[in-house]
Amino acid sequence: MKRSNLFPVLIGAVIVVLIVIAATLWMSAGARKATDDAVEKVSEFYLEELADRRSQVVTRFFETEADQMQRALALMTQEDLSSQEALRSFIGRVEALYGLELFAVADEDNVVYTEHTTYMGGSRYAFLSDELSRIRTITTNATYGGGKDICLSLPVQNRVFNGKKLKTCFIEINMDDIVSMLAFNTQEKGTYFSLYYENGENLTGLDFGPVSAKQNLLTFMSRYLTAAETEVLSGNFRNGTAGKALFSFSGAGQMFYYSPIPETGWMITVLIPENLIYDQIGGIREETMNRSIIQISITCAALLAFFGVLALKAQRESRALLEEERKIAERDSLTGVGNKYAYTQKVNTVDQDIQSGNIRLFALVVCDLNGLKQVNDTQGHAAGDNYIRKASQLICDLYKHSPVYRIGGDEFVVFLEGTDYEQRSELLESLDSRMVENNKTGGVVIAAGMAEYQPGDSHLFDVFSRADSLMYERKKQLKNA
Amino acid sequence: MKMKRALRVLAAVTALFCLVETGMPACAEETEKAASAVRFDLTLDSYAPKKDHYNFYFTYKTVHAWWDAVAMGMEDAQRQYLSRGIVVTYEYLAPEAASADDQKNRLLAAARNREYDVIGVDVADETVISPVLDQLADAGIRVMTFSSSDAAPGCKRIAYVGNTHNYEDGADLARTLCEKLGGKGKIAVLVGTKGAPCHEDRAKGVRDTVAQYPNMEIVAEEYDQDSIQRAYDLTMKILDDHPDLGGLVCCNMSNPVGAARAVKETGRDIVIVGMDHDREALRDLRDGVIYCLGIQDCYSIGFDTLQVAVKIADGELPGTLYPEKTEKSTTIIFQQDAEKMLELLYGEF
Q1: Which of A196, A279, A414, A432 is deepest in the core (most CB within 10 A)?
Q2: Check: CATH 1.10.260.40 for A340-480?
Q3: Looking at this predicted complex, what is its ipTM?
């Protein structure tokens, strides 16, 4: 080829190569931007899922509690409540069965009846007003002493006590139970959750990432958002509308998402540093990006596959994380055994099995720790927690084949089936004799009572009541020993 | 300018002196003061109850947040007894509107039941209730008084747990107001329930103290019957009748809330001194609408009432185990203490 002919070809080749390179770079840059957009959308999806999932957990929790209260009211009709003592006894059994801090009923004069006390509730509970006592409410009361009582109340129909119409029943819910259920310990991974009132006041007493528990969230956010964004955020909180905001704190981008929890006036909030999201999803992105750059030079169609792969992997990651958190939500964070939420699920399942006639033989062991208050008072709450852990370990070591639940601060329930059920008497004897020894040596002391399911029992409540009574007898024996 | 600079130097020297003398900044001192005024961490004493179940009846003046705070202490004591295997059950009841006759009927009905180990009462009117308590004591029923109002001197009730210095509280509030007004001016007094010993004693403390200031004059004295709305209405009328009013002494929990609402609405410059820990009143204290508040330790009152009731039920008499009158403190707090008190009492930041 002549030199004069080669030059235009070379020029042409260079031009073609340059065009190909430019086109590839252009498409690559476009793909990178599209990838970033996709990552952002998946991240938003991930945050929304996290918040909405937790919102649903709380909603379901209240539904379950309300359902149990309805069952308690149904049981009430079968009881002889002709005296205050009988009413208190009934309330006590309901509290023990469902692991409730407080179950109470109030009459038309706002006289509140609990297991041990009778008092005036009109100035204490807003839900006893004429208007609110007719509907189901979830209220948070700031109480003298700085505490916050979360109360779930239901209207009561056609029940009379002592000549007065009962108008409302309610339970008090410990915020720690809700915090535990929402698996707030994922904060160790850099993802923060919290609950706030519609006015921005913290509900959990826990710090929310960079926001101290004592700070008002809306006030804090106003320092990092524009006036218009702050207005939108405040409006959404006020109106109970979900939303999101991006802001920069200490030089790092933060993604903030919030979602209302129905009926409560609360917002569940999630905060994740942007770099954490990119760390989590970035690996997938880079791998897929490299493949896509090659594919871009061949065909733009690979781009579509890339989005598919990316979205699929990210969603699998999200699902795996959510599944892991569901397990955490049913686990007591202090001891690792089932928590009250898991226990109430079990109660519901067993009650359904009893009703359908598919129930297998089982027994319940109700355990209560002696001396926890003294350990807390004299050695501090860390020692008290350790005391609870030791007790839990002891119960688990003994009942190796049975699920164990922590249903209150110092109360456990063991559900015996199969091998443990067959050896139930020996196991209980072993526990009791060890407790006699511990009572002398200053070790962990557990009062336990056991009862078996018997034909004619219509609810787990019946078995629980018998076991609880025996546990109480045992508790007195151990104290007197 | 020179004057301002001199004042700044003086303020700095004073702050430094305060720090050197006390070892802590003045604001920390105020925080301590707020924190020591109320307690929520009491534990039962070492007394070993003789029974494993007690049943009590308590009645008080009227349904009101102040007595809800007392109830918190009672409930905590009840829980602590339960953790020791001792079941304490009780009724804690009151009418919607204060009434000595209603209280008398409640006490007699409770006595007829004969199922209570001890009957306790926050006396609504000592002239009406003291004879009833004597009658119950003569019938062998164990009776005690608690909260803010004791029975008349000589009454046969076994013991009293609560504020034993209502007169002094009234005097302290009046003195603080008089000093704030420079020892001259017209003031009005709002009282709670007519006949209630605690309210009457505070009002007397106010009158006696103001009388020591020759240029101070009490131009009005009214009873709100423990109603915030009535306190507001009365204050509006007083402000209308006395355009030159300088201050208000409020002798109960509802008084300062209603008074502050009226003062805010009218925009008048009135120094309000009052009692108790109502959340709205504490916010008004924080915002400078109220000058000072006398804070009673309600939780401790409730907690010790239950402890003393158990001992009385066991047949123990006042002496080494418990005094015939269990003294409870009142602390006067000012604007700088308000935020800490709101945090302590209501978790409000």
Answers
A1: A414
A2: no
A3: 0.83
